[in-house]
Amino acid sequence: MFRRYGDLAAAVVYAAGATAAVLALDLQGVVGLLLAPLLLVCPGYTLVRALEGRRRLDVPELVTATVVLSLATVALAGLELNAYDLRLTARAWSISMLVVTVVAAVAAAARRAGAHGSVRRRSSRLRALPLLAGVAACVLVAAAAAVADRSQRSLDRRTSVTTLGVARSHDRARLRISVVNAEPAAGRYRVLIEAGARWTGFSLTLKRGESWSASRHMPASGHEPVTVRLFRATGSGTLLRTVTLQ
Amino acid sequence: MNHRRSIQFAPGTGRHAARRRFASAVAGPRAERSPDDLAPAEPGRQWLAPALLTSAAGVLVVSAAYAAGRDGRSWATAAYWGGHLLTFIPLAAYVLSKSTRTKWAAVGALALFQSLTTWMYSPLTFKFPDELQHRRTALDILQHKALFHANPSLPVSPHFPGLEEITTALMSITGLSLFTSGQIVAGLAHVVVVVGVFVLLRRVTRDEWVAGVGALVFAISPHNQFFNAQWIYEVPAFAFMVVALVGATRRWSVPGLIVAFICLAAVTVTHHVTAVVTVITLFALGVGVSLQGRFKDEGRRLFGVGVVGAAMVAAWLIFRAPMTYEYLSGPVSSVFSGLVLQGSAGGKEAVGGAGVSPATTAATVVGTGTMALLVLGGAIAAWRRSRDALTRTLAVLGLGFFAILGVRVLAADGAELAGRLLTYGYLFACVAAAFALTQRWTRWRRMTGALALVAVVLVFVGNTTSGWPAPFEFVPGKFKVEGFESGVDPAGVQAARWVAANLPRKSKIACDWTACSLVGGYGPQSAYADVPGIFYTRSFDRRTRALLSDRGIDFVVVDRRITSQRPVRPGGHEYFDHETTAQKRMTPLPRWALDKFDRDPRVERVYDGGPLVVYDVRRLPGV
Fold first, then answer.
1. What pTM, to 2 d.p., does this model score?
2. pLDDT digits (tens, 9 = 90+) for A22-65
3. Which residues in chain A touch residue B479, judged by CB atoms under 8 angstroms apart?
4. Residues of B whose CB is below 8 A from A55
5. Cβ B120–A144 below 8 Å, yes or no?
6. How many Å separate Cα B191 from the centre of its chain?
């Protein structure tokens, strides 16, 4: 029994577990990646098994059909959900994929039950040399990925710039000021706001890559030209950026 | 032990019987009579592991070359080529050898390595303009939890939401970022396309060797190596197309038809051109096999699937995405006018137009010429060696390769159009090329094998120089004005993020080509790169203000680096779309042209991000 339907049962159990995890937990990052087969494997695999004829597919056929039918199922299910005004949330995606998986698994089981003879499985032996080579290839690729990630981050740090942006509120009485420290190290900055003869200023310290934004009252009536300047607060106080509002 | 032996050699079981069953299952009864065609000898089997290991080492070298490029090392490009060839040659040699097994694993690994090197090129953010355009559609789906919201940067994209649906679904379920989810979806689709081509060709040609070599040639087509590994809607659509063809070419099986219909529906909602090409391909194959007297057997089925596909595509284009006609009319008319007027359309590019040095141009010409010879010779060889109508039809359709070369030489913007068309053209050209590459003359078997490897390497090098990334940015690194990936740097991304967060949603923003890609990708605002008149004038005179008013421009994003660098792309776009000849001559853009933004007291400078500045021009009179 298990030998005949084990793969379908595994797909359904996994899909049900993954759906429960999506509904009950808020998994993120690498752990969240464990739920990806709910979209990328389960619906396609059970559909393939439901649709395959007397001949069982070999590995390349199975891989291609599983992934492509999974992707197609997601694309078409999204349209269906949207057509019924169901919001495309994690809940909707996971339940719809579970439904497809279960329905296709039931259809596959029914077809297998009607088929004569037992399902043949090819035994595969793992050989030491290919296994070692595969592991070594994965290590090399992981090293390549690490090199790429690190060098890009390093370049971004070197070429990032500190920015100043200002937006005026509708009533022109307040300014929304935003500063991003994209320099390689933490920095202390001074912001000066000049409106006519009046001015006001404040200092802030931002860690590397940190952004800051806040609303500030205009130092004057709100109908005068305003200039906002961003200085480095350390050393000679270099002027970094200037914004002018009329 | 004895028992096992007796089982192994018993009639109907054992290795030889398994091979016969496998051959029968894959290729039908004819192959059952000659199982040796499908079941290669044992000796080459052990070479897959070393080939994979060496190729993985090549990926590491490419990654190191990219890192060197980011550090500004002069040897980065040479190292890139070393790693690129090291990744390809061992797997190519493995697939080209007749005696090796599991060729699908080798071509699948090659596709996987292509995906990895594409990701390593930009491992943190989307940089290619098309990816940024799809980013906007995906963000809208995430924000509204619904489909079909307008995307000003690529209006047709929300109406073909397959890619974004899959990616945002993966994001929702896993909690991964849009970039990570996009890379997973694109990588997975890229790999299954190549493995799917192997499955398709094996089904059609009934020859695993030809199928493996065909998939190898397809994998190295100019745009497949890098462009089609990016997060763009062609990639999953092509996977749907290939599996739809697999389903349609399966003889009279209902499951095959169901698979074909599911994939036809998916390709219809994912990418317009691929959907149309799928339908045309089905009809072309149907005509081809019918002309060879196979209408009742294969032609009827292909026509039937084609009619259903055509109905789906027509219904979608008419009722859901009618603007597709307008979107595609430009490139289509460019192709036809280029062919009809024999290249007199403006902006034509010769073969090798993407090259920036004589060496890359020469590599492109040699690679393209080699492929042309392979296609021509292979079509003849396929016609002689195969009696199968479908195989012959595919090989003859491969001659369309020459028509695409014509587009490249004669049409306006031919290099880009031909590159995109070649993705489809290679699906047929690779069949013909595979027959040429698997031709062995008994007397010079080893020499023809070596020649086949040399030919494939020449095609690979030529397709690399004529494909993606452009030769001026083989390795990432220094910022280049109006480059594709190299035109995107942290300053541009920060400006786009600020615009997205702080400017009104319905604002209209004028900018240069790269800045517009970023602004359109990050925010809901509409970005226009086709108003060069704003940038090339000395002051905000009446004409400039009228232009701003006509286009409803509220803000202008200025990248001051366009006054110090010429646009790096040869022959294609300049700083802006629709530049006049006089404007094109003014490169780099004169500094005085941008000074007016700071001189005019009616213009507000609302964002200062170093090289990128955002101006509010709404207070100019008449705007």
1. 0.88
2. 998 877 777 888 999 999 999 999 999 998 867 788 899 999 99
3. 159
4. 25
5. yes
6. 13
